[in-house]
Each structure stands twice: as structure tokens, then as C-alpha cells.
Amino acid sequence: MKRVAKYLFGLLVVVSVLFFVGCDNLLGSDDDGDSGGGGGGGTSGVASVRVVNNSGYTIYYLYISPSSSGTWGPDQLGSSVISSGYSFTVNNIPAGTYDLRAVNSLGDSVYEMGYYMGGGTSHTWTINTFYGSISEPQGSILEPSPNPVP
């Protein structure tokens, strides 16, 4: 029960932040081209992350959750998937520290934990494989992109 209450409270906080920030969506958009982004950033504003799938598997679920949360929250892909060789961008992420999780067609997951995204920044998470564990390299790289978010 406590976990459900914490989840609902967290969900309420996220929805409130999104409402007051005035973002038009947190679901992002398909992005098969080159995405600008990146660099500095502060503690206010929003960030974006482009997920590039080079794993050979289709990604069916993508979760981005504040590191302080005990749950993953909603799937950012909605009814979309990220086929191998394609990308998907999640926009309007409030500045903060996040855990990211992608789940492939076999149910395997790859994680990035405790990644800081400052306001006005863009990041690229390149997923090359789903093998490994949290304590070992998993064949994924999450890094700032070279240009600021427009």
C-alpha cells in the first residue's frame, strides 16, 4: 500500500511539473535523422534524449524515471517501437537525475542509472547490445550531444 501511495504521489508530481513547465509532450517523436543537442545546461529548463537502437532487436518499451523514484513510470514509446537502426527522441524532460531502461522484443532490458540531464541539454543513448549486467558494461553509451536544445 505504501508503495502504491508513493507511486501515485510521484505520478502526481511528474504530471504537475509537466503541466507547469508547459511542455506539449513527454512522449517525444520518431527521429530517423541527425539530432542536434547537447552541451552545458543548468538546473532549470528541460532536456531531451535521443535513443539510438543499434542492438539488432526491436525496443518495445522505454522508461525514464527520476533516480529518486521507486518505480519506472509510464512507457515513453506509447504505441511506437524503435526498430534496430532507428531512433526515438524524448523531449521536455525536466532537469534532474534519471534512470533509463529499454526493453527489447525478448523481454531483455538495458539500463543507465543515475544520469544527470541539465536544462537546455540534449543527450544521445546509443544501445548496441542487451547483454551484460548493471555492474558490467552493457554495450550502451549515454552522453551529452554537442549542441544545445533549441
Description:
The protein is mainly beta. The protein has one domain: Domain of unknown function DUF5300 (Immunoglobulin-like, Sandwich). Helices cover about 15% and strands about 35% of the residues. The chain is built from 1 helix and 8 strands; from the N terminus they run αββββββββ. It has one helix at about 1-20; strands at about 30, 45-55, 60-65, 85-95, 95-105, 110-115, 120-125, 140-145. Strands 1-4-2-7-8 form a 5-stranded mixed sheet. Strands 3-5-6 form a 3-stranded antiparallel sheet, with no helix packed on it. The N and C termini lie far apart (about 40 Å). The model is unreliable at about 5-10, about 10-40 and about 135 (pLDDT under 50).
Features:
Immunoglobulin-like, mainly beta, 5-stranded mixed beta sheet, 150 residues
Task: Please write out the topology.
Blueprint: H1 2-21, E1 29-30, E2 46-53, E3 59-66, E4 87-94, E5 96-104, E6 109-117, E7 122-127, E8 140-144
Parallel strand pairs: 2-7
Antiparallel strand pairs: 1-4, 2-4, 3-5, 5-6, 7-8
